[in-house]
Queue: 3 jobs
Job 1
Amino acid sequence: MDRRGFLRRVAAGGLGMAAAGRMARAAEGATGAAPGGDRAPGGDRPQGGDRPQGGDRPQGGDRPQGGDRPPNVLFILTDDLGWGDLGCYGNRIVKTPCIDRLASEGLRFTNFYVNAPVCSPTRAGFTSGLFPSRLGIHGHFATHELNAKRGMPDSMDPGVPTVADMFQAAGYATGHIGKWHMGTVPAQEYGFAESRTFAGGGPFAWEGRENFWRHSSEYIVDDAIQFLETHRDEPFYLNLWTFHPHAPLDPSEEHMAPYARFNDKRLSGRFTTPFGVFYGTVTEMDRHLGRLLDKLDELGLRDNTIVVFSSDNGPEDIHLRETAHSGVGSPGPFRGRKRSLYEGGVRTPFIIRWPGKTPAGQVDGTTVLSGVDFLSSVSRLAGVPVPGDLRTDGEDLSRALLGEPTARTKPLFWEFRSRVLGDPINRNPMMAVREGDWKLLMNPDRSRCELYNVPADPMEVDNVAGAHAERVDRLAGMLLDWHAGLPESPIEPEAGVNTYPWPK
Ligand SMILES: [Ca+2]
């Protein structure tokens, strides 16, 4: 089912779901007016194509109030924060007291996977519930020329139903604040009625804000607080996607101070160690996220708000030129960093807090949860209907989000068509699949076949492919079938290659 069909069905009065009554009320409220977007950058909605226009869009209507008010959702997504970059995930250096507190009040997952090792595809996976390569998004969105060269579109297909569509159709106020990186089409075209973003090449929503990159977490949290205050009396779904700790990094002296011991005293200037710069940035981001969580308390929204926290990919690699300061994040105990399909590139923190519903301070170390599950699982948690014929690559793992470890039934697939930078040990084969405890990495020509039992070998050092021929054959077949069904696009010659110039 495409997005236009979804919106038409909503406008026609329901989806035949359990909560169809609420959905229908929301649809009745549709007035044909263009979506809100009072702080929308860019203004004009794109015309043409087969995108649904204003008339198709449900606009809220009489939302349930008081006791039966559905829960809000606040989804905090950080950028390039590694699995091991939080105190609550084992980091003994960096100070993240606010996120640690969120974790102590909620549930942490240790087997959470994003669906790609870089920004754009991961974000598309969370938003659509689809493996991003199925949408042609296998790398980060860049200029039109670079996208075209890699066989990528310039935006995620706005014809695909999104998690924001589900919530908006159910009468929620929807918003997206912060990094977007899903292309040049405005966020409103994906169901986010209000947005303030920087798309990269598109409108810059914080024009005139002094020293934006240094203060981005402060600014976007200010915007998010304004959103909460505006929508405190109605159900809302808000994405707050940070720019930190992706480069460029420019933390304040105050936040670098706890890490002065890393300074190289022979150097002068503000930055005399990448560690202080990176850790200071994470701490500064943590402080502002703390302000946001405090605001939920202050507005009395804490108990009725589902807060989700995650990161879009593993930590940056220090070998990359202009991002060196951000290249000292930690993948925790795992092999791989950003751009790698080894665990450290695609396994990130995932915390959920819903007071009284999610168990406090617990860790789920068994459920294999993923970005493509987000749409189905969070919608179910909030009681927001998802059409029965909406096909996603994820599944409803809401029981796990409520504290009941759950075995997933669908495999997870990844690909990365570009080369992996940095240390040879992080250079993975081009594709990967995880099913049950097993993960197979392989190139499309079946070279570099690596099989790991992930719970037994989380660092992926013991390739047991040779001892499991049957399992390798089956997983390889699944992976090749999946890959053959993806839109065609070029593969960089160095993708999936791990050549080290051995002395001869
Ligand atoms: Ca990223």
Note: The pocket of calcium ion is lined by residues 79-80, 119, 246, 312-313 (CB under 6 Å).
Job 2
Amino acid sequence: MNFHTRKWVKPEDLNPNGTLFGGSLLRWIDEEAAIYAICQLDNQRVVTKFMSEINFVSSARQGDIIELGMTATHFGRTSITLRCEVRNKITRKSILTVEKMVFVNLDENGEPAPHGRTQIRYAEETFARYRESSRQVPQSAVAVEDERAAARAEADSLH
Ligand SMILES: CC(C)(COP(=O)(O)OP(=O)(O)OC[C@H]1O[C@@H](n2cnc3c(N)ncnc32)[C@H](O)[C@@H]1OP(=O)(O)O)[C@@H](O)C(=O)NCCC(=O)NCCS
């Protein structure tokens, strides 16, 4: 499980009991899980479809640093299932677990669309793909400029 995001529990995140408000935690988890699903499926159009029961294992207090962990447990045809855990960064004591969060990959019409993924994509792979695609930019820019020059030459020859 990868723990990417750290949060510092502040006064505005507390419930009247003086511990971390569950709603704040769920908002952070939903966003973190959505980002994870977006990166795994390489598509910004993903929506939360299902969340299993949430186990608030222990409370966090003001000043605690907590970290949010995610892992993909299943790749479906249009969906991805994640397991989530939040823990205290220093003590590693578990604060919350969600066994199952399902996100659905959508097309431009908002309909479920196959994502074609079958296994976890790691950050290095995503970066390598980005580097590969950005390497192609100058080539395609040259190709576009060549096309423009050819069009100008053709236009000139018509005059
Ligand atoms: C997401 C949505 C388009 C899916 O529509 P749908 O008619 O349920 O689509 P499908 O029946 O084709 O199911 C899509 C996928 O979700 C899975 N799924 C559907 N219901 C599920 C459930 N209760 N639990 C787990 N997975 C479920 C299906 O198994 C399928 O996955 P697969 O293709 O990998 O097998 C629709 O339910 C929706 O728009 N929901 C609202 C989403 C939303 O607003 N979320 C909150 C804000 S992000």
Note: The longest helix spans residues 123-158.
Job 3
Amino acid sequence: MAGVRPVVHGVWEADGAKKTFTHALDPGLLAAHIPREGRVIDYGCGYGRLTAHLTELGYPHVTGVDPSGAMIERGLRERPGLALRHQPGLPLPEADGSFDAALLFAVLNCVPDDRSQRAVVAELARVVRPGGTMYVSEVPLQRDARNVARYEQHSQSSPHAPYGTFTTPEGGLFRHHTPAHLRALLTGSGFTPVEERTGTAPTLGGHQATRLQLVARRS
Ligand SMILES: C[S@@+](CC[C@H](N)C(=O)[O-])C[C@H]1O[C@@H](n2cnc3c(N)ncnc32)[C@H](O)[C@@H]1O
């Protein structure tokens, strides 16, 4: 994992850093899989919404990291003292197995290419100890006409992009995945999926979307 610069779309340093993020933690999944005393990395933490939430829930060892300086600046402005760190590239400075769990919430949706996705998950596999937990929340491929139209439009203009990739009017580049793709990403880096839950989540654009949460155990 020598010196990988993540592909971070410029929107996360601009308008994206003003958005309110919406994927809710599932309290049942959290309690069942991540012990209170666990060391947790909230990777792609944005402005630290979930880092703060876990801290409020009584998790004392949570660190949020994000490649967007604007996100971290906002997080520290809104919640001074929260454990947030700007992390422009990979690898993370932490030693192997430094964490008991990683949160990866609505991040892979913002990392459209397979290679960058694999780099993120592989690095989290390195810093989560064997037996530790990965808790992922994503918007999978949607079936409604609005989403299908934007997937198809993007496929036509960028035929090599994975199906499910689309742009937003603000200039964001996103990707919705099949559940099989998400499972394969996890297993490809040594995480075994152990529990999944589906639900709904509001999107950044104010629509409702299906949401998929996966919990996986590091082998
Ligand atoms: C939709 S926000 C979610 C933030 C946070 N996880 C939450 O749920 O509140 C997506 C975050 O992913 C970050 N991001 C974008 N590309 C990334 C990459 N290649 N690696 C890690 N994080 C990335 C963005 O800076 C942004 O903070």
Note: The longest helix spans residues 114-127.
